[in-house]
Structure formats: structure tokens, C-alpha cells
Amino acid sequence: MQTKILLDEEQIPKQWYNVQADLPSPLDPPLNPRTQKPIVPEDLSAIFPMELIRQEVTTDRYVDIPEEVRDVFRLWRPTPLYRAHRLEKFLKTPAKIYYKWEGVSPAGSHKVNTAVPQAYYNMKAGVERIASETGAGQWGSSIAFATMLYDMDCTIYMVRSSYEQKPYRKSMMRVWGAECIPSPSTRTESGRTVLKKDPDTPGSLGIAISEAVEDAVNHEKTNYALGSVLNHVCLHQTVIGLECREQLAMVDDYPDVVIGCVGGGTNFAGISFPFAGDKLTGKHPDIDIIGVEPASCPTLTRGLYTYDLADEAGYTPLLKMFTLGHDFVPPSMHAGGLRYHGDSPIVSRLVHDGVMRAVAYHQSEVFDAAQTFARTEGIIVAPETSHAVKGAIDEALKCRQTGESKTILFNCSGHGNFDMSAYDAYSAGTLVDYEYPDALIKEALDRIPKIA
Amino acid sequence: MQTKILLDEEQIPKQWYNVQADLPSPLDPPLNPRTQKPIVPEDLSAIFPMELIRQEVTTDRYVDIPEEVRDVFRLWRPTPLYRAHRLEKFLKTPAKIYYKWEGVSPAGSHKVNTAVPQAYYNMKAGVERIASETGAGQWGSSIAFATMLYDMDCTIYMVRSSYEQKPYRKSMMRVWGAECIPSPSTRTESGRTVLKKDPDTPGSLGIAISEAVEDAVNHEKTNYALGSVLNHVCLHQTVIGLECREQLAMVDDYPDVVIGCVGGGTNFAGISFPFAGDKLTGKHPDIDIIGVEPASCPTLTRGLYTYDLADEAGYTPLLKMFTLGHDFVPPSMHAGGLRYHGDSPIVSRLVHDGVMRAVAYHQSEVFDAAQTFARTEGIIVAPETSHAVKGAIDEALKCRQTGESKTILFNCSGHGNFDMSAYDAYSAGTLVDYEYPDALIKEALDRIPKIA
């Protein structure tokens, strides 16, 4: 039975798909936090190259992928699409489960799909150094790899709790020539401020973003790069879903359900936006698109859909998104890449409009799912990815109940080779499931700045 | 420029190639250590299933791969063959460099290629538990994965120096349901004996083999499995070279040089035996086949070609091979999988006969090569694999000198995701290069038992 559905390198997409073109009305624009007026490209030009700013706002349906970027993609793309025969058999489900395996990339996850074009456009614009942040380290190692390709320097602010849990992500960044420091750090004003208030803070993505932006603003020929959340990052990740659609067509299939885990939302965007476009344009109106988030950072399921800052210190524009409040510090947990207070504005809009929906799970149940996946399909996934695995297993089990033979597609976004301490905690029974009282969530939401 | 040469799952080889069929004269047989007479199948039946014993001695040119085993292979095979465009450009070489990427397997290396059929044949023979050993942990995690597929129990004796350097390999074995204990252990007579002599020993593969064999002999329905050295292990690994030959034919190429790293010798055997067969049968008489070993365990380059034990305690047959003496304990170094006192009898014979040759490198220079590879091709290889990378780079640099456009093929046998502490030591400048005085080697060789 065919297990892997493969494409040739010539079939690496030549264009990214931009779901903004198919939204029934435009996205609410990012606002300047000082003036509360929509930002203009110049507001962003201190930290982003003009081509990425253009991609952030364009409503063109397709954006060309530079040949030089496609040439780098050949190192791992197109990635294989797997039919999960062994998992299906184990679950005794009539559903067909497919997963897109992004763990074959150099840094081991989908993050490289946007790191390479981001580094490329910065290089083209004469930028010589990138400052960025990372949660679990997948983005940090990806941007380290990408900047190395173009002979650029790179500094990564890594969320402290992950820095301590995953020391070898730092080693990987070093092999590729980047510098990696725990955040909050004493290098930046925003880092020092947080440390003063709480020297033992586990850190957060919001804090690390503030540090990286501050670094970029204050250094010559240095730009900032973000591995998630923004529209251009979603755009770059659509290679995942575009390939999936081709691969499923090769076996005469099309998904009834599309699933991804959600931190900032871009791996989910990557696999789902081409299908969301099919839904928005009426080609496949019934497709069910599910984002899976951690119950310990439940932005889409318990957050507010409103304008909020993307970082802790307030250096970034206000984005219209689901948020728990920009100063919300999620507990230290193993899916560090999902510890973000907000979400991609496009994903948020689509969830708000009912084009997509969201579910939340606790870490002990997602690790149950991850172990089942490892013991059937052989792949040990990242803690972030295990959320998508759990979502897919639950949908497949529903099919066992109903007898439906649905086609379920999920994004297997990265391997867990640097996350084995999380599996150790799981097998030792020491994983903690955080449940937020409503009052605590409300308090965080009340701190979101009010827009006039 | 095409980077990856891919095959369909239908092109997973249907038969293994057995180079024994093309040797000009038979291999010297394994001897019973007590009688010094050739062993008979019954001598091995206490620890191996009959089908593997048959494969150990057969001179059939091809051996069928069971369909059930090919079905498991679909999870990662055929593996991609890469053209190393970026490395070639960096080296300014006219050579063409290809590498076979075995790191895409569940456990991250070629070892799974033999773990699966070994577990399969044991399951078929009614065996319910496997005892085995592991050096760096690649074999241990592979046999853990394979035994899990067939619902068997598994105990792994892991060489202590690697157990401490690579704690997450143990976590991986646990995810797949196996038990992993540091060797020498107090579980076995052979382990206790070594610990009594030297409580601080780093352990060795020879000691760990003794423990696993002793465990298998002393437990019901338990067999032993070896991840290297033996003829049937070489046989199983030939899927690598067979696929390479097909993949190179797709781009109208054939190697002038074939390279692999050598510990027990089976990943090298896997990539090279199909080409060695072409050489032995006169189809390609000039192909250069190079095994690369660590200078700190220089079996092929400084050992003796003679009968010796495969393990420390003397539980195994005497094998005719290159050896440094069965009680030789190599220093603790990062390429734990290459810390073996002997070599595959077939590889040894082919090196002895001049069909293949061997070179040795120090660990600091192989890590230089590994870093170059990571910074060009993006892949962070295992310390073992870095020896093959170094060999390929050196051959490519010779081509730059001579202007020859040779086709160089090497086995990129595994990823280094669990070996980042070695890269940390490299970048900290703390790697130690061991150079053995001739006297010390001679002393170890003098302890090899004399055959009448």
C-alpha cells in the first residue's frame, strides 16, 4: 500500500497563495500604537525590507517565489505527504489520515519555508544582520540556517524556559554561525525592565520579540525577522498546503478536514489557507478547518478578538487578532512554540468569521497522542506538532463512531529530536496540565489597550 | 539544478545483494572458540533465528526481501540521493559529489534497514524478546523501533560513555517501548567482571555485546541481535547501494569513488557492496572504494587480519577480520558507533584483497568537515557520518588539484540531532585527538588468541 506521495522538485510551487485576495472584505489594518492610525509602509521600514512590507499588505492572489529561493527549497522540498496506514489501523477508523511531513527540512520543521525568503529579501535590500526571537528554537535555528546561506550575521533571543529545556537548539544555531542568548536578557532596555520586575521569569515570546525589535532598531544594517503571526509569514508557508493539494489530487483525494497546531498560527495557515481559499470561493464550502492550541495558552478558544500589541513592550503595531493580552505570560510548558499571547490576524479573522474553528487540549493528552503516533508511524514529533496529531486522532475516532470515511489531513510540522526531555517528563508522569480560572483570563484581557 | 534524485516506493529493492557470491574464493568460516573448528548452524541457534543463520552463510547472489519488511520500509525508503551542489561550489571542485541520505529513517540512520528484518525473522520464529547492545545509540533506537512493530520486548545495553553523552537516545528507545541500561552493568556476569576490574570504564562495544549475548542465552524466548559486523547485517544494508545504483543511472552517472565510515563496517558495506560486486565481476574494475575510520580506533589501517573474538568476554565465535584485539578499549570519543575493536569479516576480506581500501582521520578534522557540510548542504550529520564526509571532501579536493571530474558517492548514514554535545565540544575547541603509540597497538594485538 502506497505510503508516501512524492512530487518532483519541478513541482515546488512557483507562487505563494495569498488568501487575502479571497476574503469577502479587507483585513482590519495594523495600527500605529502611538497615533492609533493605520500604519504606513515607512513605519515598518526600520525593521523590514520593502518587499516583505509589500507582501504583508498585498491583496494579489499569487506572489512569485524567487528562483533563488526555490533553489534552496530543493534541499528538502517538496516534502512527502504520508498516508497514515498504521495509525488508521491502530485506531480502527474508517477515516483516511494523511500527514504532511515538514520535519525533513534542515532545521527539522516548517519554519525554514519562511526563514529562507525572509533572509533572501533582506540580503537583497543590503541588510547584513538579522535580530530575531525564538520560542522552542525551531524558528531560531531556521533563521540561523537561512542567514548563513546569504552570509549574514544573526542574533537570536531565545525564551528562557525553552533555552533551558532545549540546550541543543542553541548548539544547532551555533553550527550555522548564529548567536543565541536567553531572553529576557540584559542586552536590551525591554529585557532589563522585565528582569527587574521578575528576575525568575520564564520569559515569553512577547518579551523576546520586544528585545529583538529593539536590537534591530538600534543597530546599523540590522533588520528584524518574525517567524510567525504576520501575513507575509502565512503567505510563505502556503507552499505546504499547495503541495498537499497536488499530492492528494495524485491519489484522487481532497480533505474533508484540515488540521494544524496553532501558536502564532502560520504552520496552520500554511497547510490550510489554500483549502480555506477553496472554501471562501465556494469550490469546497463544507471543508472543516481546525486549529489546535494548548489549553495553557488558549488564545483562539478563550481570547478576545480585538486590537492588541504583538509584543510585550509595545514596539510593534497593534494587530486585530485573538489575544490574551500582550503582557500575558503563559506557564512554562513543553510546546514552547505555542506560548504566544496572540495569533495571526488572518487566522484570527477566519476563525472569527467561522471559516475555521479552534479546539484546545492539555499537554498530557497531546503527549498520549504523540506516543501513539510514534508507536504507529515511527515519527517522534515536536510537542507543538503533537497538538495537531491529537486533533487528527480525535477526528478519526469520531469517524469510528459515525462510520464516516472522512479524509483527514494534518500538518506534521516538525520532529521532536530536540524535545526528548518533554517525552521523559511524559513517561515519568510529571507533566502538569494548566487550567486557567476565568478570572485570571479576564484580568489579562482587561489590560489590553483600548482603541478609540 | 536537480538536487534530489528520488525513487518510487515500488522501486524499493525486492532482493538484497550478497557479495559472497562474487568473491573469488569462500570466506574463512567463523570458528567455535572452544574447539577452534568451523561453527555449525546449531552453535548459533541459541541466539539467532534459523533464517538469519542461513543468510549469514549463504552464497546465493540475491536473497528475497519479505513483502512485510518492504511494507515497513515504505515509511522512509527509498531514501533520497542528493547531488551536493553547494558543497561542490564551496570546495571549487570539478568533482561531482553525491550523498545517500539515510537520516530520514525513524531512528535517524541506516540501522533501521537491518533492525526491521532482524526483528521480523525473530518474530516469525516465535521469539518474544530481543537483547542487544548499542554504541552511540543509533542501533539501540533502531532495534527498539523494530521490535515494537512486532510487539516484542527489547533490552538494550548501551556503552556507558555514549549513555552519558547522549541521554536522549535512551528517551527515544523508551518512547518505542524498550529498556536501555548503561554497560557494563551489574545485570550480567561479564558486566560485573569488567566493573570489578575497572569501575570507571567508559565501556566498549565488545563489552556490551558480551552482556547482551549473555542475557539472550540465559532468558527464555529471548534472542540476540547485532547491528553491525555480521554477514547478514551487511546483506540487509545493501538496499542502500542498490538504490544508489538505480538513482545514479537515472542521471546517467556511475561512481568513480564510493565512501562510507567504518565502525563494524555495515553502513559502508551497504553502500559499497553492489559496486564492489561490479568491480569483482569486472564490470567496473577501476572503482575506488574507501572505508573511513577514526584514528583513535584504527582497525583497518593498523589492526591485524586474523581470527579474533567479536566480543570482550568470549561468548561469540572467532571471526577472521581486521582487529585490534577483543579486549581493546578505545578511548571515549564522540563517534561512539565507530568504537569497535574489529570489523565485518567481508569488509576485512575485501580490504585485505585490495578490492577496497581504508583511511583514518582524527576527530577534530572530521568535525571540520561536518561543519563545512552543515554550512553548505544544511545537514548536521552524526559524528560517525562525519568521517565519510571528510573522506568525500578530501577526494573532491584531490580532484581540484588534478582537474579530474570524478563522480564521488558517499553514505550520509545518519543525522547528528542527538550528538550536539559533540558539536559543542568542537566549537569550544575541547576535542581531543588520540594518537596511539605503536607499542600500545602491538601489546593489544599480542593478546589476540592464537589459532592452531
From TrEMBL, chains A, B:
Residue stretches in coiled coil: none
Listed cofactors: pyridoxal 5'-phosphate
Superkingdom, taxonomy of origin: Archaea
GO molecular function, one term: pyridoxal phosphate binding
Catalytic activity: (1S,2R)-1-C-(indol-3-yl)glycerol 3-phosphate + L-serine = D-glyceraldehyde 3-phosphate + L-tryptophan + H2O
Pfam families, alphabetized: PALP (PF00291)
Pathway: Amino-acid biosynthesis; L-tryptophan biosynthesis; L-tryptophan from chorismate: step 5/5
N6-(pyridoxal phosphate)lysine sites (modified residues): K111
A Gene Ontology term for the protein's cellular component: cytoplasm
Domain Tryptophan synthase beta chain-like PALP positions: 74-414
PANTHER family: TRYPTOPHAN SYNTHASE, TRYPTOPHAN SYNTHASE-RELATED
Assembly with partners or alone: Tetramer of two alpha and two beta chains.
Name of the protein this chain belongs to: Tryptophan synthase beta chain
